[in-house]
Automatic annotation (TrEMBL):
GO terms for molecular function: ADP binding; ATP binding; phosphoglycerate kinase activity. Substrate binds at D21, F22, N23, R36, H59, L60, G61, R62, R114, R147. Its main location: cytoplasm. It is an enzyme of class 2 (transferase). PANTHER family: PHOSPHOGLYCERATE KINASE, PHOSPHOGLYCERATE KINASE 1, CHLOROPLASTIC-RELATED. It comes from Kushneria indalinina DSM 14324. The gene is pgk. It comes from the Bacteria. ATP binds at K198, E315, G341, G342, D343, T344. (2R)-3-phosphoglycerate binds at R36, R114, R147. This is Phosphoglycerate kinase. SUPFAM superfamilies: Phosphoglycerate kinase.
Length: 387
């Protein structure tokens, strides 16, 4: 049984409870990166066009349940969303005690669901309470779909109607397009700091892609596995065998040259060396220009590209060229490209290629779990609800 979609339901006059992922960075009471809020707008506008009574809900941060606090209040999100929609978005704090009054064509935001006791444990009575607030529950929070919590999972069992929102549907469609039957050649880039945190993703991708480009600290472990000195670089000696096993399974092109420094700092002097010339007191902080060129060539010719994690320490100018070259090559490629993860999105933003990536996922952990082939609990809850 497939998941029901919001587009199949008539929302007119209905109390529609939409779970979004508004877990966004906030500083001094202001939202500092609103990509996730913007991504929710088409869903909200569709519900508004149908004159639904709209209740939005989300978590923010990881507060102690039962202890609401101002820092993790969704108030800044309500204000920001109101500005984007050009209407007032009321923040409802007491929705568990008193059902919110929502008029047709009105949008309210329920306060941080993780302030509620039982949210994280997927408590049944809390899930029933959420369900009682609505006629239709819409799960649209792809970024939180790997969590089985009361607002992402339990509620779907008890709501009169439960369906996937347009954002969740499009995220799943894009990932399926990249992974189920990818246009070849498929190139995956997995960067970031540690192999250990991405081992399952690396394994899953090694089964699917034609070329696996590794970056960042992850690449250092592969360079060590190939027998080269990595000096003081971040790498994981205990994962060298796993890296060798991956290299036996799939084509992992190794860097030819690297950018090194003797300190991890924005004052550090960056030096380019051949990969076999790294000294004991140096650390590898980026791929070198020849390597970036080789990777970029492969990316430009790819039919499908999946990207998670930077190629180097892109936050520091002198170690950012490798990640920049890859971002530009992905943007230039005619293949289908999908990118996900907090640092990856920050890099895409930094290098100004956002509009030239085919699909940018709002998911971090959820994106990785999908790629690993894991079942997303929020999606299975919708499948069960459709039975
Ligand atoms: N060679 C390197 N040595 C040390 N740190 C590196 C190196 N290359 C990249 N990094 C750092 O790794 C960090 C990203 O790694 P991390 O494992 O946190 O990725 P991530 O948060 O999982 O990525 P994403 O959010 O895209 O999934 C960046 O801050 C980057 O500066
Ligand atoms: O930012 C995320 O990855 C999601 O919002 C999930 O947040 P969590 O890791 O606190 O559950």
């Amino acid at each position: 049984m497939t998941v029901r979609k919001m587009s199949e339901l008539n929302l007119a006059g209905q109390r529609v409870l939409i779970r979004q992922d508004f877990n966004v960075p906030i500083k001094d009471g202001k939202v500092t990166s609103d990509a996730r809020i913007r991504a929710s707008l088409p869903t909200i506008r569709t519900a508004l066009e149908q004159n639904a009574r709209i209740m939005l809900m989300s978590h923010l941060g990881r507060p102690t349940e039962g202890e609401p606090n101002d820092e993790e209040s969704l108030a800044p999100v309500a204000n920001h969303l109101g500005e984007l929609l050009g209407m007032t978005v009321r923040l409802e704090r007491d929705y568990l005690e008193q059902d919110p009054e929502v008029k047709e064509g009105e949008v309210v935001l329920l306060e941080n669901v993780r302030f509620n006791k039982g949210e994280k444990k997927d408590d049944e009575s809390l899930a029933r309470k959420y369900a009682s607030l609505c006629d239709i529950y819409v799960m649209d929070a792809f970024g939180t779909s790997h969590r089985a919590e009361a607002s992402t999972h339990g509620v779907a069992r008890f709501a009169p109607d439960a369906c996937a929102g347009p954002l969740l549907s499009s995220e799943l469609d894009a990932l399926e397009k990249a992974l189920a039957n990818p246009k070849r050649p498929m190139v995956a880039i997995v960067g970031g700091s540690k192999v250990s945190t991405k081992l399952e993703v690396l394994n899953a991708l090694s089964e699917k892609c034609d070329q696996l480009i590794v970056g960042g600290g992850i690449a250092n472990t592969f360079i060590a596995a190939a027998g080269y000195n990595v000096g003081k670089s971040l790498y994981e000696a205990d994962l060298v065998d796993q890296a060798k096993a991956l290299m036996d399974k799939v084509n992992v092109p190794l860097p030819i040259d690297v950018v090194v420094a003797t300190e991890f700092s924005d004052k550090a002097e960056a030096v380019t060396r051949n990969v076999d010339e790294v000294r004991d007191d140096e650390m590898i902080l980026d791929v070198g220009p020849q390597t970036a060129q080789t990777y970029a060539d492969a990316l430009r010719e790819a039919g499908t590209i999946l990207w998670n994690g930077p190629a180097g320490v892109f936050e520091i100018e002198q170690f950012s060229a490798g990640t920049r070259a890859m971002a530009n090559a992905i943007a230039d490629s005619n293949g289908f490209s999908i990118a996900g993860g907090g640092d990856t999105l920050a890099a895409i933003d930094q290098f100004g290629v956002t509009d030239r990536i085919s699909y940018i996922s709002t998911g971090g952990g959820a994106f990785l779990e999908y790629v690993e082939g894991k079942t997303l609990p929020a999606v299975s809850a919708l499948r069960d609800a459709a039975k």
